[in-house]
Specification:
328 residues; alpha/beta; 7-stranded parallel sheet; 11 helices
Length: 328
């Protein structure tokens, strides 16, 4: 089985490639990635020599290239995206280009290459915001109500995938997942940012009152869910994936400071993000019931692994910091 992966040099994509090559002998992976600031070939160290793996530097916005590179693949797993909400507020056009037009290119390329399964990686952010203090949860029937250019661009891409299924018969599946954390996550997202800042005794910036809540899933559990969906998931279906671990920003900061033995005074409250969603929570029952998936990591065990990984891989962090200094 040949799997065409987009965005495999990013956080979840790289974890997925490691997971798949470690678990299955009989697969080949083509990693198609344009290497934006978030793409990092260091995330794939150790597998470049694996003959089942091939890297192609390319942009999903380049239809000719992506169609050519996908030739011979059985399955496409589409991770490539601009993924950071704050950046989408500063530069929305980049998000529309990659997440909407780029996804549309991939759909055209998938049809042309007669891909047997197009799996689209999406987010719970497309559903909008839940009230704090309620037990409401997102599920596969929740209407879309995105608030940021990032979530609106991901919502658009989900709609396009379904439209290509309905209109052209493209065999697809979609997963809408909650906040991932773990190795290789670019230090702009809350957990690696707080870890890196805490290592350097720098402030941990919390938006608003710090009480906005997200569901957290250890990235390897997400990879396992994707593996299950592409192999056993029903064509045309969507699966919501979450860790069942709701945490707010203050709780995340406290865990990190406590584990690293750093003072609570490093927490700093900053002006809230515009249109900041208050709470996300995921009802996992469909993927649990239909595919037998459930997260193997508790929040505590996932966080311990994550903290250990960032502690042991300070060189990885330093290389990113050096690259950022060079690009200004
Ligand atoms: N990180 C999360 O918590 C989370 C949660 C749910 C869903 N998702 C989704 O999962 C996917 C991966 O997220 P991530 O956190 O790994 O993102 P990331 O930002 O770490 O990585 C994105 C990757 O895509 C590549 N890329 C960006 N634009 C490209 C283009 N035009 N052509 C080719 N490659 C391009 C980048 O170089 C990078 O390697 C995204 O679609 C995101 O929306 C992420």
């Amino acid at each position: 089985m040949k799997i065409f992966v987009t965005g495999g040099a990013g956080f979840i994509g790289a974890n997925f490639i490691h997971y798949m090559l470690g678990k299955h002998d009989d697969i080949e992976i083509i990693n198609f990635d344009s290497l934006t600031y978030a793409g990092n070939l260091e995330n794939l160290k150790g597998i470049e020599a694996d003959e089942r793996y091939k890297f192609v530097k390319g942009d999903v916005c380049d239809l000719t290239h992506v169609t050519e590179a996908m030739k011979g693949a059985d399955i496409a797993v589409h991770f490539a995206a601009e993924s950071h909400v704050d950046r989408s507020i500063l530069e929305p056009a980049e998000f529309i280009k990659t997440n909407v037009l780029g996804t549309h290119n991939l759909l055209m390329a998938a049809l042309k290459n007669k891909i047997k399964r197009f799996h689209h990686i999406s987010t719970d952010e497309v559903f909008g915001s839940l009230e704090l203090g309620t037990k409401d949860m997102f599920n596969e029937e929740t209407p879309y109500n995105p608030h940021s250019p990032y979530s609106a661009s991901k919502a658009s891409s989900d709609h396009l995938v379904r439209a290509y299924g309905d209109t052209f018969g493209l065999p697809f599946t979609i997963t809408n997942c909650s906040n991932n954390y773990g190795p290789f996550q670019f230090p702009e997202k809350i957990i690696p940012l707080f870890l890196v800042n805490a290592f350097m005794d720098k402030p941990l910036p919390l938006y608003g009152d710090g009480k906005s809540t997200r569901d957290y899933l250890y990235v390897e559990d997400h990879c396992e869910a994707i593996d299950l969906v592409i192999n056993k998931g029903k064509e045309g279906e969507t699966y919501c994936v979450g860790g069942g671990a709701e945490k707010n920003g203050i709780e995340i900061a406290n865990v990190i400071l406590e584990k690293l033995g750093k003072p609570k005074e490093l927490v700093t409250f900053v002006e809230d993000r515009s249109a900041h969603d208050r709470r996300y929570a995921i009802d996992n029952s469909k993927i649990k019931k239909e595919l037998g998936w459930q997260p193997k990591h508790s929040f505590e065990s996932g966080m311990q692994k994550t903290i250990d990984w960032y502690t042991e891989n300070r060189g990885w962090i330093e290389n990113i910091r050096a690259r950022q200094r060079i690009s200004g």
